[in-house]
Design a protein that fits this description.
The protein contains three helices and eight strands; from the N terminus they run H-E-E-E-E-H-E-E-E-E-H. With about 140 residues, it is an alpha+beta fold. Strands 1, 2, 3, 4, 5, 6, 7 and 8 form an eight-stranded antiparallel beta sheet that branches.
Length: about 140
Amino acid sequence: MGKLCSRLVGLAALLATVLPASAQVARWTPVPGAPEVLLDLPSVQFRGVTVRAWVRNLPGAQAMQAVSATGAGGRSGPQRHAVLAQFDCQARTLQVLATTAYDATGKPLASASVPGRPAPVPREDAIGWVYDALCEGARSVP
């Protein structure tokens, strides 16, 4: 019983140090100006003039093409999607790097990680608000 107890204590200690670092919960936050679009704040990465982030409910043809590329179909089709978006703040472009489609219950239907081509970000669109929010953040990072 002593060996088993010490192994359990060791396992608990290991899990206590590993799990917080590896399990990161998404924090979906509404985008100012486009509250229907949500950003996963812990996923935001600034790299020079580019910014990457997971975005939920991204509108527009490019996002819809990315979702359809997952092959998620069926009778009900995807009800929600999240895309890994990369914005080039200098060129004002968006490139969808990956996407996941979900059903109405939140169950993943399909995913794809084939990057799309960079496309211009429209100014009067919810995507423009996402671009502005992320690129303004990138400009403020030293």
